[in-house]
Amino acid sequence: MDQGLKELLEYPENSQCADCTEPNPTWASTNWGVFICVQCAGVHRSLGVEHSFVLSCSLDNWSKEQIDFMKARGNKEMNALLEHSVPKTIEVPFGSETDRDTRDKYIRAKYIEQLFYKKEGRTPNPPKRMKRIGSSSSRHSPPSPSLRDAAMIEYIGIIEVELIEGKNLIIKDIISSDPYCKLTVGLQSRKSTIKKKTLNPHYNEMFSFSWDGKDKLWIEIYDHDDLSKDDHMGIVDVDLEFLKKGDGEERSHECWLPVTHRKHRDKQQGELKLKLTYRPIN
């Protein structure tokens, strides 16, 4: 994660989702300048990029201009405008326990229709939410079980990733590398075993992820070092939507994928062989 984003997320006013106050938001609407949770991010994405351009704080690449814009806005300032006058009759989302319909209606009213926006003659009436206890917990801890369980409601199936092997990976030690993989889908991360002194590792390991039908699979490859920070060896990103095809059937696909440089994506640094399987929840 960019250091500038880390600092912004440490601000108390950005420590909760701008829409439902769920602690530790890890997503952002970059054209509104607010930090949001994974569930609200799903609603924002459904609005379309012309209304809300959503980025992951940890997985996506951010421009300096986007970070500067977030720095100039933030949850406190934007909510002072967008939630200036919320009628008492409006059901306000509160954390992961909020159902999708309530969350959707509120976010559309707030950003698309701007029903609560600060205007001349409107009496200030910010939304009333219960006070959270312990919401200042570490921003670097994994999401709580309650958040993960609630997020499952939004998921459409399971993605199984069989990490088979790699070939022609780059040298990070003197003559070889000790590669391992970090696999991420949404908020879920898994880590493979470390393969010693090889540029052509054989893993044959299986990983499962709950999937919302939109999140990509990201695989980052590292060289393990005992005495220093692990070196980055490359990245693979996979758009998984081709596995759905709209028929709701289980589908598998085996393939070799290029490993590229983290910043210079046209620079290939080896290949990974994967088998991807989509299993609908129903």
UniProtKB/TrEMBL annotation:
<dbReference type="InterPro" id="IPR038508">
    <property type="entry name" value="ArfGAP_dom_sf"/>
</dbReference>
<dbReference type="InterPro" id="IPR035892">
    <property type="entry name" value="C2_domain_sf"/>
</dbReference>
<feature type="domain" description="Arf-GAP">
    <location>
        <begin position="2"/>
        <end position="124"/>
    </location>
</feature>
<dbReference type="GO" id="GO:0005543">
    <property type="term" value="F:phospholipid binding"/>
</dbReference>
<dbReference type="InterPro" id="IPR001164">
    <property type="entry name" value="ArfGAP_dom"/>
</dbReference>
<keyword id="KW-0343">GTPase activation</keyword>
<dbReference type="InterPro" id="IPR037278">
    <property type="entry name" value="ARFGAP/RecO"/>
</dbReference>
<feature type="region of interest" description="Disordered">
    <location>
        <begin position="120"/>
        <end position="146"/>
    </location>
</feature>
<dbReference type="GO" id="GO:0008270">
    <property type="term" value="F:zinc ion binding"/>
</dbReference>
<dbReference type="GO" id="GO:0005096">
    <property type="term" value="F:GTPase activator activity"/>
</dbReference>
<keyword id="KW-0863">Zinc-finger</keyword>
<keyword id="KW-0862">Zinc</keyword>
<feature type="domain" description="C2">
    <location>
        <begin position="139"/>
        <end position="257"/>
    </location>
</feature>
<dbReference type="Pfam" id="PF00168">
    <property type="entry name" value="C2"/>
</dbReference>
<keyword id="KW-0479">Metal-binding</keyword>
<dbReference type="Pfam" id="PF01412">
    <property type="entry name" value="ArfGap"/>
</dbReference>
<dbReference type="InterPro" id="IPR000008">
    <property type="entry name" value="C2_dom"/>
</dbReference>
<protein>
    <recommendedName>
        <fullName>Arf-GAP domain-containing protein</fullName>
    </recommendedName>
</protein>
<dbReference type="InterPro" id="IPR044518">
    <property type="entry name" value="ARF_GAP_AGD11/12/13"/>
</dbReference>
